[in-house]
Structure to design on (349 residues):
């Protein structure tokens, strides 16, 4: 019998248990899977309008900066998002950023002329173990397709940007979850490509590696964590929320290793900030700082849950040059279903 995904924490989930439980948020994927190409792009849209004209507040935390993302400097300075959030592989960042710029200019011909230039926002993880990065297979059309097909219901696991990702020596990928904190919803989406096999922890219980033990290798992966909420927060408060993503990440056994790019970004859909200076700024009553603890708990729990969803829903496959990654769900299929201590990975055949 297959081992069910353990549930993290006591807070209730939204209907989908996904980031799209935050109203207005949608997610789209394009997956490339042919020959030695196993990669893709995932797009998270904060709302259905034009994010360049109707910007949303955001803040982020760099837990470890071994990454090649585009757009974080301006987010730090202005505290807003101006494009959807794109996830892809390391070498595809320039192509996806160019796609975001072209998309914005097409919709707003005054961008970069009468109006400010747009700030593309692209995050990456290195999927080069399973994917031939040098093919640079992800193009602008793939971003556009992922954007146009974004919806509230979306696949998780070995899809989109997660197709070629690895976690804890196992197949990684895209995972998502949500938690309700009083009147507000918090949703998380992760691109999981991190972790050392011997450090894996599931729902608070260490996982025994198969025997003979897999050699311990240095941490060379990354994880991108996106947090959405409908709580009225400003950029400073959202940065505080993003920092708590590290609590959920650490619970799974991450130490934010030297070679891992671990970045968390949080945004709010409670209000938008106009691009055009002639439009009035919103008058929003922000949530009091003393009331943030419930959201902090929701962030930590939803991030940990999203990572488990990524691991459970990923599928095993053989990628570039015969490199293989087994799926966690396959290796745990003979484990007891009534307890998660201890869990032991069976050696893949």
């Amino acid at each position: 019998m297959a081992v069910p995904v353990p549930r993290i924490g006591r807070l209730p989930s939204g209907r989908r248990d996904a980031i799209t439980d935050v109203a207005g948020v949608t997610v789209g994927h394009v997956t490339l899977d042919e020959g030695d190409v196993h990669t893709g792009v995932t797009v998270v849209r904060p709302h259905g309008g034009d994010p360049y004209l109707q910007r949303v507040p955001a803040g982020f935390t760099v837990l470890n900066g071994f990454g090649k993302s585009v757009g974080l400097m301006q987010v730090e300075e202005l505290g807003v998002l101006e494009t959807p959030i794109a996830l892809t592989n390391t070498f595809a960042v320039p192509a996806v950023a160019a796609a975001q710029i072209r998309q914005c200019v097409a919709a707003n011909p005054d961008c970069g002329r009468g109006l400010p230039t747009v700030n593309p926002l692209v995050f990456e993880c290195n999927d080069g173990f399973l994917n031939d990065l040098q093919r640079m297979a992800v193009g602008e059309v793939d971003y556009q397709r992922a954007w146009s097909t974004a919806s509230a219901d979306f696949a998780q696991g070995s899809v989109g940007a997660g197709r070629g990702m690895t976690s804890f020596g196992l197949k990684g990928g895209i995972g998502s979850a949500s938690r309700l904190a009083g009147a507000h919803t918090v949703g998380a989406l992760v691109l999981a490509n991190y972790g050392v096999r011997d450090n894996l922890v599931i729902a608070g219980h260490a996982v025994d590696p198969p025997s003979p033990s897999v050699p311990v290798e240095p941490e060379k992966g990354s994880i991108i964590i996106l947090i959405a909420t409908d709580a009225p927060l400003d950029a400073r408060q959202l940065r505080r929320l993003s920092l708590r993503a590290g609590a959920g990440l650490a619970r799974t056994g991450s130490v934010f290793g030297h070679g891992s790019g671990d970045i968390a970004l949080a945004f709010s859909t409670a209000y938008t900030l106009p691009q055009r200076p002639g439009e009035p700024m919103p008058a929003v009553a922000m949530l009091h700082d003393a009331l943030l603890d419930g959201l902090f708990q929701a962030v930590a729990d939803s991030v940990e849950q999203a990572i488990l969803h990524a691991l459970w829903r990923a599928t095993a496959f053989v990628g570039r040059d015969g490199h293989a990654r087994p799926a966690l769900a396959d290796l745990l299929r003979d484990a007891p279903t009534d307890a998660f201590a201890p869990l032991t990975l069976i050696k893949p055949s």
Remarks:
- The mean pLDDT is 93.
- The first strand starts at residue 26 and ends at 34.
- The two ends are 18 Å apart (CA to CA).
